[in-house]
């Protein structure tokens, strides 16, 4: 197999799925271009802010992609390229894209509320609180894993103490990127320029940041960068979306699209040969393909985190319902293509069927730089830009998930009437955006110090379980509102089987460390054990509540109540 054939097959399959299956879903569920969206109906200047479809698409794609579609396929390639490619395409179309579209659609139809509120409306308050607690725990895992990845891409020193110029340039460019985003956000907010002017200014800022980053690298160690990343995430999660999240994601979209286009061009120009076996076996290095393949690829095929982004941030920025399909379904399919590119790079760099040495982001950047070097471009410069793009993915995911974690924690302790004046002093503290953000990030930091390698298996399992729970909630929503929902039933049952199996294996492995191997490490294995048990327990309770609603006798559809706006969460 060569890279060009794999790329062509993927583009045809994914493009065909959007034009056929995606359009069919939109027609089946119903899209109303004349409806007033929550972004206008509940505009508050913080979370509910109308934005152009290109801006929301950039936010959605950058947020859901993160480092997942790069890390997952590269790690899962140990099973061979055929099972990885099949799951990316099949899972991405019939599991991931359907979930993302349904989550955003349901949220827009319910005043931009999160999946948690949808669960409260259609399943019950207890189910909602259990789900919010699950989401909060999951958010901690995501922040911990991605913060460690970002700090690693900024680390200015190699393992032997040498200077890492590429990482230093990435760090400088990323810092300049944040500053540029703030200025760009003020420019957009105050001047409301045309799309042409916005694009010109955005591209200019992006190019200037990259040029200055290449010229003036910063060399700081990973531990220090980790402190900075958490400080930045704290600020980003409490700042109004128009001031940082929207403009940075808009700028990111240029970088990310450029990376995708460059990667596709590189594959077609270099036409790399895949040096991986088509299938390596059902058990590789002591790991079973079921469920490891599915929880490892995660974001490249289906991800519960996407449902949180679709219903937690993006849905509050949609200007017109007709934008839901391209922003949700389209972003997921584009992410699948990114996962395919990651598979091609690891296949090209493999030697004799053995995976290349290095972290997945490094392998990905090396592969793309190698492809484009055929055109005479500098491998160092390309490597730096690709590494920057990967860190931009992860930083954007950090922005979004920290905000989602903060909102979930606040909602857990919010009064039913949503009125701050009726709260006790303790409840006011717990629902403060500064306190809730601080608590979330504190637990995430404790996990991040153990490294993403130790977090990733648990993150993948929790991520896929969250997907199963979101699919259950969305299936209930579709049933209660008299819409077709059978396309969600298969994915939710399969994902439940995958994730509960994976989490059970995690718990078994840790117990084995305690009672057999005697190599149990409290701050690493202890935290993972607590999280795994909590996730299984919460997952079971939410799933049972959801299934009861799915299979109960049919009742007339409920109308969405006037739930309190997220503006109450600003204080």
- List the helices and strands in order: HHHHHHHHHHHEEHHHHHHHHHH
| Number of extended strands | 2
Largest sheet: 2 strands, antiparallel
Tell me the number of helical segments per DSSP (H or I, 4 or more residues long): 21
Anisotropy-based shape: globular
Radius of gyration: 22 Å
Structural class label: mainly alpha
Helix content: over 70%
CATH class: Mainly Alpha
As a percent range, the share of strand residues is under 5%
Mean pLDDT: 86
CATH architecture: Up-down Bundle
When the domains are counted, the total is 1
If you consult CATH, what is the topology? Amino acid/polyamine transporter I
| Largest beta sheet: strand ordering | 1-2
Poorly predicted runs are 559-571
Distance between the termini: 56 Å
